[in-house]
Amino acid sequence: MNEALRRAMHQTRMTDRQLAEKCGVDIKTVGRWMTETGRIPRARHRWAVCEALGEEEAVLWPAAARKAIKVGPDREVVSVYPYRSGCPASLWRSLITKAERELTFAGYTNYFLWLEQARFGAALQRKAAQGCRVRFVLGDPDSDVTRSREQDEAVALTLSTRIRVTLAELEKIRSQPGVDARFSDGHAYLSVFRFDDDMIVTPLLTHSVGHDAPTLHLRRHQDDGMFDRFASHIEELWKRGTPVWEEEGNG
To answer: pTM above 0.90?
Structure first.
């Protein structure tokens, strides 16, 4: 019995039939995944299950993950997506849900999170109440850098408007201890999102918006590796940033 798969389905309240439909397989196939110890589905089916359940392959099928374990300097790269829009919303939710120490959102607007994650503000409040540090690093909507990027993007929903949407949402939860935000222009073309020892990084390309940016999912495995380099970048942005609110009573 694949207990990890059974638990993940139970937690998401997904039936065998529903999972079969999402993965494009027969319901009997899902039954075999559940009951036949050691059975490993094809890669495309494993990925479909992981997306449907918001779980990672290493949890559901550790044997398959072990076969793909990296030992070189790139072992911190978990996944690569040509576009941020191709990174499953379920992965973001899973990383947010599992984080216990730190959630840092250093996207220039962070606008998409409020659209794609149901009750995102409430989730952040719960995390902060449980002792998790929640930080936002945003671009200043009135800065020269923002105006320059708006000209570069040339889209109807301007960068400054998207930033102000995030500011309005953050205003609703700013009274929660543990939630803080700062302005910085140092990440205008590089967004970094940290969830404890996991991270999503999106370098922005010329004349493109965030959802078109190539995206990396990183996980920390070594000192001074890729993860730590980007983590240092976040800390420097935070140190140099300007408080969004006049009094930093929430940090």
So the answer is: no
